[in-house]
Amino acid sequence: MQSLILLLKVSRPLGWVVAPLVFVIGLYYSNSYLTLLSIVQIILLSFPFSIILYGINDLYDYDSDRLNPRKKILNFNEEERVLIRRVSILVSISLLASSIVTLNLSNILSMLLLIAVSYYYSAPPIRLKERPPLDSISNGILFFLAFSLGYSFGSEIWVIPLKIYFVAIGVMGIHSFGAVMDYSVDQAAGHRTIAVVFGKRVASMFSCLAFLSALLFANIGRTYINYYFAFCSTLFLISAIFPSEKLAAFLFKLIFVGFIVAALLFVVPYVYP
Fold first, then answer.
1. Residue 150, Cα to own-chain centre: how many angstroms?
2. Whole-number Å distance between alpha carbons of 267 and 273
3. In-domain check, residue 26
4. What is the largest distance, in Å, between two alpha-carbon atoms of the chain?
5. 212 is in which domain, residue-wise?
6. Are 141 and 244 in a shared domain?
7. In a domain? residue 5
8. Is residue 138 located within the same domain as residue 168?
9. Residue 188 shares a structural domain with residue 228
C-alpha cells in the first residue's frame, strides 16, 4: 500500500488525462475508432505512463523541488528510488508490448520515441530539460508522438495534417511558460531551463508567438479551439509585460484548465456521438 501511494504521488494524477486525450484526438483525425488495442494504449498512457514522465523527473529534480513552495518535496530513500525505476521499466515494457502486438510500424516507432524522450527529458546523461531550447522542443515532440500513436490506428504518421505540427509548436510554448513560474528555484538549483538561460520575458514571448502561429496558421475549424489559442496568447503576453512568477503560476492554471475543457469538447462527441 505504501508503494502504491508513492507511485500515485509521483505520477501526478492531474496529468493522467493529458496523453490519453491527445491520443484520442489522433484517433479522430485518422478516422479510426476505439478498439481493444487502442483502449489498452489509452489506459497505459494514463497513470502508468505518468510514472515514467513524472516519477523519473522527481528523482532527478530534488535540488529544485526542495526549494519550490509549489511542490511537496518527496525525499526518496534508496528503496523508493529502486521501486520507481523498476516500475518505470515494467511500464515501458508494457507500453512497447502493446505497440508490438498492433504489428503497426508507425505505432511501434512512435511508442519507442515516446518512451525514450519521456525518460531522457529528465534523466542523465542527456537530460533534455537542461538543454534549452530542447527542453521546450521535446515537450512539443511528446505531444506529437502521443497524437501519432492514436493516428497510427487509422493512417500512416507521415501524412499527419500540417495543423498538428503548429499545435505541437503551441505545446512547446506551454512548456516554455511553465519554466517562467519556476525561474527562481531553477536558477538557485543551477538548472538551465529556457527561462533561466534566456530570461522570463523571452520565454513568455516565445510562448505567445508559438500560440499565435497556431492561431494564424493551423487553420483549425473549431471556433472554441481558436478562442483557446487567442486566450493563451493574451495570457503569455501579459506575463511578458509583467514577468511575475506568482502571476505566471496563476495564469498557468488557467491555461491547463482551458486545455482540458477544449480537449473534452473535442473528444466527447467522438467517443459519445
1. 15
2. 10
3. no
4. 51
5. 161-273
6. no
7. yes
8. no
9. yes
* C-alpha cell at position 183: 525561474
What pLDDT, in 10s, does the model give residues 166-225? 999 999 999 999 999 989 888 888 888 999 999 999 999 999 999 999 999 998 888 999
Residues 186, 89 share a domain: no
What residue has cell string 472554441? 224
Say how far apart CA 123 and CA 60 lie, in whole Å.
7
Establish how many alpha carbons lie within 13 A of residue 217's alpha carbon, considering only the half-sphere containing its beta carbon: 14
Which of residues 154, 187, 221 is at a domain's end? Answer: 154
Domain final residue, candidates 124, 154, 184: 154
203 vs 40, 199, 251, CA distance in Å? Answer: 37, 6, 14
CA 60 to chain centre: 18
Name the domain count of the chain: 2
pTM above 0.85?
A: yes
- CA dist., res. 20 & res. 43, Å (int): 7
CA 38 to chain centre: 19
Write the pLDDT tens digit of every residue in 134-174: 999 999 999 999 999 999 999 999 999 999 999 999 999 99
**Rounded distance between C-alpha atoms, residue 149 and residue 266, angstroms:** 18
